[in-house]
Structures are given as structure tokens and as C-alpha cells.
Write a structure and sequence with these properties.
Elements (H helix, E strand, L loop, with lengths): L4 H15 L28 E3 L6 E3 L8 E6 L15 E6 L5 E7 L15 H8 L4 E4 L4 H9 L4 E3 H4 L4 E3 L9 E3 L1 H10 L24 E2 L2 E4 L8 E6 L4 E6 L2 E2 L10 E2 L1 E7 L1 E3 L6 E3 L3 E9 L2 E9 L7 E4 L12 E7 L4 E3 L1
Amino acid sequence: MFINYRLVCGVMLAVMLAVLPGCGLGPKGSVAKDENIQAPQSYPEENRVKCPLSGDMVPEGIIGRRPLAVMIENAPAARPQSGLDKADVVYEILAEGAITRFLAVYLHADVAELGPVRSARPYYIERMFEYNAMYAYCGGSEAAKEMVRRERVAQLDEFGVGRQAYWRVKGRRAPHNLYTDTRKLRKVGAKRGYEKSVKLPELAFLGQGEENIGGLTADKLIINYPLRVSVVDWEFNAQRKLYLRNEGGISHRDAVTGEQLTGSNIIVQYVDTTIIDNEGRRDISMVGRGRAVLFTGGKAYNGTWSKGDVRAQTIFYGENGEVLKLNPGQTWIEVVPKKTKVEYY
């Protein structure tokens, strides 16, 4: 009897694929920690829309969800971090010890390895409010804890979430080893009733070939945070139309990809800053008005910022009072004390 071996092998392979359990790769090639997490859905090109936080064209089904705002550490022992490259917006603000800390905001991208995650402070919460985000962190100052309770923050504190979305990695000492996954955070948020469509900031983006009014050529930006290990410099790469990030004198890279961190837009925002206790905790005024400088497309635009109240959006204006527009891509907002030396040329 004639047997079509090619047909038999094809059937056997199809059966094997049908019965094997779904599996995927997690951070650094390990098996994914949650087998229920499904692969991203593929969307046709015509179903893409502009992300309101980055200006990138993304699947339309994604931007209706709620942003995530995650506290990421930036002490030297926490570097290199994982997942900052996928955020729509990253805030860098001083914490105690003259070390900066990040608040990374995610809407359209998901990250399987994000961290190290650290604790909350009130002025980061004020920035998180602008996005009506779910807030992921690990503990916090007493003032931050009180603010979370009082303002009914959609909180995803590691102390209450635990292994549902957080884990500690080997090879780093605590507290610099706590990591999370945005999909797992969203899963917990959905269980708590947090995951929903919310009002988002109305960020303004430049169109093809459009530029802001005026501006000075500036390919290099240096932000002199108090400690040498925290000094940040951004260099504009004209070919990529991106700013490349260096910190403490070396290139700042992502731990997973190994690629240098970049930004399409860098905003320096000058604010009133006061140290309020012996631990070096700070009171940073995020409401009111002040000076700001936008760096985009290799140019610097002097201007101002304005924020009406704790939950209002911060708006950045040019010298003539016009709203400054951003190039599509990731935006970094460097919040600095008013007397900070910032150089650009």
C-alpha cells in the first residue's frame, strides 16, 4: 500500500503543535512567568492611530486603556535599568541623597522586565495625576502614603500586590533588585477595577516638516545634578534625530537590549525645591509657573511652564506664549531646582 510520508509527517506535526501548552520567552530568554499572558495581537496598518502621549502610530485598540506610571530607581547600584526605553514619557526628579529617580509613564507599550522599582514621593504622585494613571511603586514616605489614601490613588504598591506582579532578581542586592511586568500590573489593576479609559493630557506634536518658532542650535545638553554620578548629558544625533543619554560620564543603557537610552524631546523644567527633613526628603513645587527649555530636533526653545492645580496638566509655552510642540517619540522631562546649572550649546 502506498503511504504518503510527507502527508503523515505534516499531520503529526500539526497534532503536536495543537496539544503543546503555550509558552513564551520572558526576561533574558527565561520561560515567561505567566502562561496566561497572550502574545500581542497583530493589527493591520490601517487600524493604527496616533498615541496621545508619544505621537507614534500605534494599534488603535491600545490607546483606550489606562496609563501606568512606575517608580524606577536611579542610584548607581540600580543601573542599568530595564524598560525605560519603552516608556512614552519619563520624568527625572531629585530624591533624597541628591540622587535622581524616574517616573516612567506607559500607554501603548508593554514591558516584560521593568525596574528596579522603588518607593513613592508626593511630587511624583502629582505628576502621575496628569495622566490619570495607575501608580506602581514599593512603599513610600509617610507623606506619600497619606497622599495615596487621601487622593484615592489607583495604587499598585508591591506591599499589597506582591508576587502577582513583582519579583526580585538574583545578582543584585536589595533594595535594587525589585522588578515588575506591565502586563501583570494591568492584570492586577483590572481585578481592582482600575483598568478603564480615562482622560489623557492633550500633548501637541509637530507635523511633517513643521518646527516650533525660533530656537537656537544646541546639539549638547548638560544637566549638573548635585552628584557627579548623577550628572546627565544628552547629545543630539542628527542622523537618528534623537538625543543620546549619558549619565555619570558613561552612556546610559538598557539592561535587556544593551542599547543606549534616547529621547526625541528633552524638557528642562525649573522648580522651587526645599529639603524638609534630616533624611533629605524634598518638597518640590509642581503647581504654579516657572521657566522651561525644550530641546527637540537639535534646537533649544526657551519658554515657561504652567500647572493650575495638583491634577491639572503641565503646559509648556514658547517665548511668545505659544504652546511648544514635540516631535513624535519618547519625551524626557528633567525637573531641576531653579539654581541648577544647565549648559547647552
